[in-house]
Amino acid sequence: MKNPYSLTTAIFVIIAIIGAWLLNWRDENFAFILLLYFIITLGIKLDEIAGQIGIPDRDRTYPAEKDKNIIKQLEKINASMDTLNRTIGILAGNSKQNDTGPGPVDRFPNTDEKRDHRPENPEK
Predict the structure, then answer these.
(1) Residue ranges covered by each domain of the chain
(2) pTM (2 decimals)?
């Protein structure tokens, strides 16, 4: 866009007119809209300045595939994850071999059960 200030001004003037006619805004509301207008206009101007002083030949998207350092770090992370998965697999295999079951053998069944000793509910 060649001149973004005219579009921004038009949008804020429309907002102010709608606020005055339909929403019955007071002075504080118009002051707030004016403050927002100046903040947006300053942001547009700073974006233009940043575009002028920036390096025009450089790609601004910075894809990760172009950075060799990021690729090397990702390969190291992938190798570490493979090693970690192998180690977890070995540990999981060892724990299955050493598993003795759900717990100790129960030689005295029903010792931990709560019994109902009331006469109206005799045990079976």
Answers:
(1) 4-53, 64-95
(2) 0.43
